[in-house]
Amino acid sequence: MTKKNATARLIHFLVGLFIACLALALILALAVPIGFYGMAMYLSPTLPSIQEIKTANLEMPLQIYSSDDKLIGQYGNRLSLPVTFEEIPKGLTQAFLAAEDASFFQHSGISIKGLGRAVTEVVTDDESQTGGSTITMQVAKNYFLSSERTLNRKLTELFLARKIEDELSKNDILTLYVNKIYLGEGAYGIRAAAKKYYSKSLENLTVAEMAMLAGLPKAPSKYNPVANPSRALTRRNWIIGRMHELGYINKAQHDEAINAPIGINLYQEKLDVNMPYLAEMTRSALVNRYGEQVMHGGWRVRLTVDSEAQKAAESAILTGLVAYEHRHGWRGAEANGEPLEKFRRYSNMSPAKVTKVNSRSFEATMPSGENVTVNWSGMSWARKYISADRIGYFPSNASQIVSKNDIVRLIPTTNGNWQLGQIPEVQGSLVSLNPETGAVRALVGGFDFNHSKFNRALQGWRQPGSTIKPLVYTTALEKGYRPDSIVSDRPIQVGDWKPKNSDQRFLGDITLRRGLYLSRNLVSIRLLQAIGISDARNLLDEFGLDKEKLPTTLSLALGAGQATPLQMATAYATFANGGHRIQPYFIEQIYNYDNKLLFQANPQQACALCFNEQLDAVNKKLIKDYEAKIEAENKAAAAKDESISAKDKATDKKDAELKAENNDKIAKDDKALDLDIYDASPYSDRLKAPVVQYVRAEQAPRILKPRVAFEMADILRDVVQRGTAVKARALGRDDIGGKTGTTNEAKDAWFAGFHPTNATVVWMGFDQPSTLGRREYGGVAALPVWMDFMKAQLKDTPHQWVSINNRAKSKKQKQSIIEMMDEGAAELEDDTADEGKSAKPVKTTTQQRKPPAPEPVEEQIQNRPAPEKPKPSRTDDNNPQNKPLSATPVARMPPMPE
């Protein structure tokens, strides 16, 4: 009985347990969808709109070109080139399905198998070849979510995937995926990756290459064929096997793909000419206007600068700096016993390690491992540096100059030999402008951009010395003085200040013309006294100098205050163009990635009338030249095609096989590739600008009377013919003018010169102002650099000179004074100037470096009163504070594409 009861209780317990389990199963079966639905209701309001991911943005590097279409700079490493579904090769789609989501076209956004596989991978720490996320889930993550691994993010990804599947077609989802997925090396999307790894368009990819790209989404760095070729090859071959297993390719295609080499032809753009000061100036201007995204917008920017002119400017500066170093002696080796790899090349100066010292030569090892010999002629200049004013005796043997294991600099010579050099401590800059338009023709910011990125041409505030005198004298000419007006060069005392001339002599009464071309300090001071400091400062402001950086004392006449080389070039352009104020600019055109013109500069012209009269003829010639160029390119392409078709097919095939073997390493010169196959190489992305057509120009404001501009230009021509720049007569031209400038203790050396087609300024000095040496006047340090540059620029340029006639038929704008009275505003005629002010220059608020306080200027001028701080006046109301003139794009620039 007891036994029966026990059996009954057991049966009852088992039945109850079964019913409980059944109830639990039923509850769970109802709870999961209810919970899933509840979670969906909770997350749904926070989910983004799927319509936001309908488009993918193009991203390509910013490219900067010279006016003659030489690539001089490139910024940005992101590549994204969206494609449509129709542009995706079928084989590439199959490769990605095989690698990532074979059931993509069957599931509804979430794959239970895939999730299970992902869980197994996490639990067992097994590296599966496929991930757990479907392609739809990856789209959700790539477009909307971060890569953090949290439950909330994963749930959001699941619900987003379902939402995407509900609102988009499978084709749309796949297109979004292949356009956004990161594939390493800065490439986003399949078209960018095909370009980056193979320099090919999608249509030219082989099965092996498609499989390689399809293997990257799982871990772009781990399976990168550049960084990890063996891992990448293993994954590629697994994907090829999957493609065969799924029936996407046959056995022959499988075997051919498996045996194919990696065959990388990495997309690596190579600059035609490296001009970093110009490139960085352009990048900075665009980033300031549009933000960092401009470096990925695919823009092609063409500058006003000709590459040959720029190379001539850089060469002239380098030659001038090396010449200065030779005049002041050898400072010794950079180091001794240090590894050569620690030292980098600057400009044309390569580091080298001395291995053997002979009596009249030494031997050295270059970074390449090459052994070279420096003969006596290449080192005999190296007298010992003692100070800026003293050097030692000439050396008699090589051991007095170098020792074994010294790290020195070597410069190649034109005859194939080597010369001992040293990195200059002195710096220099050069700015060259087109006086008619303000276009920058050349700009050098220093010795070497990699040595110092500070751009002295734009940011170097220095005392201009005697180069400011022509601007002061011009004020006198505007007020009625003439070149033959008599001014005293006798001693003068202003308070405790007793200024002197550089030669300590006094010439008595001399003409204004002679006072300027001989750079007489006392004449300049007396003129400034007569015309008034305020009026002089106002005109200097119109020339382009910053009024707030000019003193309000008589020291202004000798170049106290501060100016940049660009400002001085702008001022001297006014003499070259007959009295007009031009605005410097350097961006000529901007094109998008598809070579569509976004922006064309249209600067104000010194003679808009002259430009507009010839406009139709110029535009017709541009069209004719462009059509001739296209025709020549087409003929060359046709000739090449004929040549290729005539070759033996078997030989072509063999060559192709050899090329494939050689392509295991990255191609170094994309132009050597077959551009029919490698049709997405850097060469294919070069600027291919349509024909340029100019529009009518506006007139630049006149700030000087035509007669005054002509008279000052004529006096400055005398500076070259009989004054302080007489050395420039060696150029053999009588149609150039300019002015030397040297500040107190020779801390700055200048030459500002011009021809009617070119206004160029050269500056030399130390970044931390100190003496260049007692003999380093502007005519010694800066003028030879100007001559070196201008010799190339004026070659084949016909003789011409500044016209006294008003070519532009322009007038100085009449200035009025508005006086506020009880009855209202009354306009009074300004008796102090017969013609008024021009528009103020465009000035930037950016200033990266502030120089030390101004010091007295001009050669050996002593005991001068310190400049007073400028006082505000009503004429300053419209002048921006501390906003120096800068070279900028003209006012109207294109909007940044979104």
Q: Tell me the span between the first and last alpha carbons.
A: 89 Å
> What's the overall average pLDDT, rounded?
83
Oligomeric state of the chains present here: single chain
Estimated radius of gyration = 37 Å
The major beta sheet can be summarized as: 6 strands, antiparallel
Percent helix among the residues?
25-40%
Class computed from helices, strands and strand pairing: alpha+beta
Number of helices: 24
Topology, please?
Blueprint: H1 2-43, E1 62-65, E2 71-75, E3 79-80, H2 90-100, H3 112-124, H4 135-144, H5 151-167, H6 170-180, E4 187-188, H7 190-198, H8 207-214, H9 229-245, H10 251-259, H11 276-290, E5 300-303, H12 307-328, E6 335-336, E7 350-357, E8 361-365, E9 371-375, E10 385-387, E11 390-391, E12 406-412, E13 418-421, E14 427-433, E15 440-444, H13 456-459, H14 469-478, E16 486-488, E17 509-511, H15 512-517, H16 521-531, H17 533-543, H18 565-576, E18 587-591, E19 597-600, H19 608-613, H20 615-645, H21 649-662, H22 706-722, E20 737-742, E21 748-755, E22 758-765, H23 778-781, H24 783-793, E23 816-821, E24 824-829
Parallel strand pairs: 1-5, 3-4
Antiparallel strand pairs: 1-2, 5-18, 6-12, 7-8, 7-12, 8-9, 10-11, 12-13, 14-15, 14-22, 16-17, 18-19, 20-21, 21-22, 23-24
Helix pairs in contact: 2-8, 2-9, 4-5, 4-6, 8-9, 9-10, 12-24, 14-16, 14-17, 14-22
